[in-house]
Amino acid sequence: MHHIKTTKEKIRKLSIQKQLLTADAKPTIYEVFKQLGCVQLDPISVVAPSHELVLWSRLGNYNKQELEDLRWKQKMLFEYLAHAASIVLTEEFPIHNWKMQRYKSTGTKENTSLNNWLSKIKDHKEITKQILQELKQHKQVLSKDLGDESHKSDTASRWWSGRYVPNILYALWLQGEVAVVGRKDKQKLYGIAEEFFTANTPQENFTDEQLTRHNILRSLQILGVATPKQIKNNYTRNRYPTFKKTFEELLQEGLIIPVEIEDYNYVKKESWYIHSNDVEALENVNNTFEPTTKLLSPFDNLICDRDRLETIWDFSYRIEIYTPPKKRVYGYYVLPILHEDKLIGRVDLKKDKTKDNLNVVNIYWENLFVSKTVKETVITTLTELQTFLGLKSLQLPTNF
């Protein structure tokens, strides 16, 4: 079988290009989502909400209202599971609807798991019925307001004790019965999914084979060069039901091509692959790559697969949010620094609203020697982030 040879440097560069993190990438907000497939949501916003940082890394000081319009007015984006809870494309609704139907359909492992979980909630069917009635009546409701005194009948009061509502809402969201239809002070506003999605939302039903074929090719084109495990961990995790069979078919068709990495130590019996459409881009990447310096959210698409990160970038990264302070190696909210095709360090940041500044708690370099020019470039990037956050000043550590 035909295969191509490459290097880890070329794989890094192609991956960065694919992630729209090069100097020449000038995408729109929607083009970022179109290329990445999903952008992860996370409630922690020590610096800014993660999805806003992901967009900032690619767009600079973008218009946040434009993102809100795409989500809630034009409804070109919505919230659902991808590799994690994410903002995804409405045009790819069938990909996500496949998962919703799995949560609904009796006999699937998703439905069985969900029902086992719900069965622990007394009267969960009655509570579900009540939630749906209230959403139909009020259109947009915060979870905390469902079943409060302004909404519920006296007979329903026992159903809301113990705060079962968020759990049942989550189940209904997984099943595609309800949708996040807006945000109020970052809290989710829920509504009936049918009322949220417009008439032109694509509705075709994918078979397991069609879904797997689409997702393998999509995931591989997002990554550039990847192993089967990395493909399955990316984009729509756990949505590759016929992976082995479909992958073999794509290989036979020549849509996927094996890659040999010349400077890679094949300790594990891993095979690497590329989409046939990306072979030319990989071969020419040293000529087309436009390097720049970026700060990355802890949940950025480029680095969210930690094993891939270590393999290609030799960069070990773990989020220490839940690590006791004394045991943290780097800090609470640490952003990796991408410079050219390497991850050269990480910066521990905190937004200080009282002093109106972006506080750089510490910067950790991967190598002992970092040139003055590179350090100045990183400071410039940090200043750009400070501006994006609407803060007046940047506070650097004394040892910088």
From TrEMBL:
InterPro entries, sorted: AlkZ-like
Domain of life: Bacteria
Pfam families registered for this protein in UniProt: AlkZ-like (PF06224)
Protein name (Swiss-Prot/TrEMBL): YcaQ family DNA glycosylase
Lineage: Bacteria, Katanobacteria
